[in-house]
Design brief:
This protein is mainly alpha-helical. It is about 70% helix and about 0% strand.
Length: about 70
């Protein structure tokens, strides 16, 4: 259903949403310090996933030429 170039972006977005839900639940519940620390680390990983999405969007371009940079003869 998705173009193969966008599968990595889709994967990062799904992972970011999952980390958002799990991290917020861990921070809200915070039964002990370990749960709170896990929630904070989950939110840090969320930020890293979002950075990955941004970098992938900048890297992937459909109008960019593929293959060698030298012109064909």
């Amino acid at each position: 259903c998705f173009h193969y170039l966008f599968q990595d972006i889709f994967n990062s977005v799904v992972a970011a949403l999952f980390l958002l839900v799990v991290g917020l639940f861990a921070i809200i519940i915070k039964t002990n310090k370990g749960t709170l620390a896990g929630g904070v680390l989950g939110l840090i990983l969320l930020v890293l996933c979002l950075v990955d999405v941004v970098l992938l969007c900048k890297k992937i371009s459909l109008d960019k030429a593929r293959g060698r940079s030298a012109p064909a003869k």
